[in-house]
């Protein structure tokens, strides 16, 4: 069955970095564009970044542009989100999703606090 498993979240201080991973299985990972979303407490889920199936094009929310980098390794069926210069406003549960399907991971918590 389809599985998306996020990892790499944690508690960091403002200005620090984290690298999230999404491990995919149960489908042909290289055939699908992928997305990272996040949901902060009391807020709607927000699209963070998108990457094409072969990784040749990416898009970012204005709030993370220049700080976050989405990437993927189709040989390892994994996707990553490198997050730099984190701020408290980045605190949220981060989810990976297959763009064309309603397939979501369980999420990983990112907390940015001093």
Short description:
This protein is mainly beta and 114 residues long.
Radius of gyration: 13 Å
> Helicity range of the residues?
under 10%
Helix tally equals 0
- Overall shape: it is globular
The SSE string, one letter per element, is EEEEEEEEEEE
Average per-residue pLDDT, rounded, comes to 97
| Quaternary structure | single chain
How many E-type strands? 11
- Overall structural class, as computed from helix and strand content, comes to mainly beta
Largest sheet: 7 strands, mixed
Distance between the termini: 40 Å
Beta content: over 45%
Low-confidence stretches: none
What does this structure look like?
The structure is a single chain. With 114 residues, the chain is mostly beta strands. The chain has no helices and 11 strands. It has strands spanning 3-7, 10-12, 18-25, 34-39, 46-51, 58-60, 68-73, 78-83, 92-98, 103-104, 108-112. Strands 2, 4, 5, 6, 9, 10 and 11 form a 7-stranded mixed sheet that branches. A 4-stranded antiparallel sheet has the order 1-3-8-7, with no helix packed on it.
Brief descriptors of the model:
114 residues, mainly beta, 0% helix
